[in-house]
Amino acid sequence: MSDKLCRWGILGTAGIARKNWQAIYNAPNATLMGVASRDLGRSQQYIDECQTTVSFATPPRAFGSYEELIESPDIDAVYTPIPTTVRKEWVIRAAEAGKHVMCEKPCGVTVADVEEMIAICESNGVQFMDGVMFMHSQRMQKLRELLDDGESVGDIKRIVTHFTFRADEAWLAEDIRTSSDLEPLGALGDLGWYTLRMPLLIMNYETPQRVTGRLLTELGQAASPEKVPVEFSGELLWDRGVSCSFYCSFLTEHSQLTHVSGTRGHLQISDYVLPFFGSELAINVSNSHFELVGSDFMMEEHLRREPVREYSNSRPNSQETKLFENFSDLVLSGKRDSFWPEVALQTQRVMEACLESARSGSVVVNMS
Fold this sequence. Notes:
Helix content is 33%, strand content 29%. It has 368 residues and is α/β, with parallel strands linked by helices.
């Protein structure tokens, strides 16, 4: 293993990997050594296209199979943006080859899959982490400060999270996220992972005691054996009087809302997954005040903006770069952080419980 740089390989040529190609380039402790596809020409084409916009001094090597990349002695860690139904096999094979694993979400089809993946990573002494970029943003530190200061929100009572985008007919008919063979969890796995991770973060990773889910819309492309969720909502309930409503959809125009209400005020983030373009992120806090004077009903907003100096994307301090920098730090340090596999498994468990509820007529599922 390199003493200075974590050497990355990418399994697959998914679109999201283009963003992470640049993130690896921007991370000071990382470099990209190779990209694998099941077709050597496709790997090379992908590398050539990415090199035209973000150029490594030594272009990454094209591999004609996942096996070849995993077995390469020049690779320390792999990023796996491959379909969920095949991800388990390659995460396990990478771990058994001594490669650290950054796993796209949803991490697996089932909780049992993710438990096995994590167990094998642990037994082989490699780090496992999911690819949730906002977890590595400085804005999450600011969010924690505001939630804990006792004044901005007070005691948390209600959380709302949304993540949606409106796919066109061609996308719904062709994208792998509407194929049960490849992405059986549909929008719940692709977008719901974020709408569930955020309330867990807000609640300091306390698992809700009860959950419900509702399958609002299911679709499947022509070749899909079964329909998949394309619009889903649910509720998370904690015994100490906190509730959360979440919503994810491929049918609703762009929305990525986090709203937290408490006994002293409320806060809102309108771009918690993919920050709005710019050099600054923000959280809006409101401690509204109502006053009745005679016949005058006066509601004062008392809104303040809490900024964080962080680029939205494509820069050394953006959240996707920090994701790869933080992971590479763990690899290079020789230390493992159990928090990351634990929170990935927790997210998978809550998601599976919500889906179980939805498929059982939205009955309450007890997480305990």
